[in-house]
Amino acid sequence: DAGVIQSPRHEVTEMGQEVTLRCKPISGHNSLFWYRQTMMRGLELLIYFNNNVPIDDSGMPEDRFSAKMPNASFSTLKIQPSEPRDSAVYFCASSSQPGMGYEQYFGPGTRLTVT
Amino acid sequence: KNQVEQSPQSLIILEGKNCTLQCNYTVSPFSNLRWYKQDTGRGPVSLTIMTFSENTKSNGRYTATLDADTKQSSLHITASQLSDSASYICVVGGRDTDKLIFGTGTRLQVFP
């Protein structure tokens, strides 16, 4: 298996623009997680899905952030409008079990820079 | 407040030496604790996962210990290699909240 796939790997955009990050989980995994990592705050869970349904979105910072999982093999994280403070590395992870107690496999991340 | 604190923030050692990284947490009730290795520019990779009933787990040259009474964990790296240079992140799961609390990591650099 290719592991968790994320695209793009790097994104540079101007403040106010819409940004869409994409994730393909490991085939057969039914839980998907979106994380954000910054130097100051480390890794933070934004949202997680189980069987394509959002279970916990309490980490989504504000309404500018939205996530969807239209099917078991694809998810998007959208920021509209983007702001410089959104600059971070965004990771997607998947797991074969529901909940937070099991092994999670991380993708390579998308480094977002908002100028 | 549920917190995970790691020490030291950064560490430099010579190749072949051993080292120990520390993790203290206040998450309660506790469910599991895991250590991740994150190479620069990559996503974290799991090294070990321990439940509250386990007090040690090994993965090759990596050995994690857990003392649930004192809420402390350590990650011991034996005979370090240049490829061990990375950030090591301690993550604690709570039993009731189904959330993971992440430490900010220890940055390890191994020099020849």
Structure notes:
- The complex is a heterodimer of chains A (115) and B (112).
- Chain A is mainly beta and 115 residues long.
- Chain A has strands at residues 5-7, 10-13, 19-24, 31-38, 42-50, 53-56, 65-71, 74-79, 88-95, 105-106, 110-114.
- In chain A, the strands form two sheets. In chain A, strands 2, 4, 5, 6, 9, 10 and 11 form a seven-stranded mixed sheet that branches. Chain A has a four-stranded antiparallel sheet with strand order 1-3-8-7, with no helix packed on it.
- In chain A, a hairpin with a 2-residue loop joins strand 5 and strand 6.
- The N and C termini of chain A lie far apart (36 Å).
- The model of chain A has no long low-confidence stretch (mean pLDDT 94).
- With 112 residues, chain B is an all-beta fold.
- In chain B, 0% of the residues lie in helices and 59% in strands.
- The radius of gyration of chain B is 13 Å and the shape is globular.
- The N and C termini of chain B lie far apart (41 Å).
- At the A-B interface, strand 5 and strand 10 of A face strand 5 and strand 9 of B.
Q: Based on helices, strands and strand pairing, what is the structural class of chain B?
A: mainly beta
| Termini separation of chain A | 36 Å
Radius of gyration of chain A: 13 Å
**What helical percentage do the residues of chain A reach?**
under 10%
Globally, the shape of chain A reads globular
Terminal CA distance of chain B? 41 Å
- The number of distinct helices of chain B, counting runs of at least 4 residues, comes to 0
Strand content of chain A: over 45%
Main sheet specs of chain B: 6 strands, mixed
Low-confidence stretches of chain A: none
- Total strand count of chain B, please? 11
Roughly how many Å is the radius of gyration of chain B? Answer: 13 Å
Number of strands of chain A: 11
| Oligomer class | heterodimer
- The average pLDDT of chain A is 94
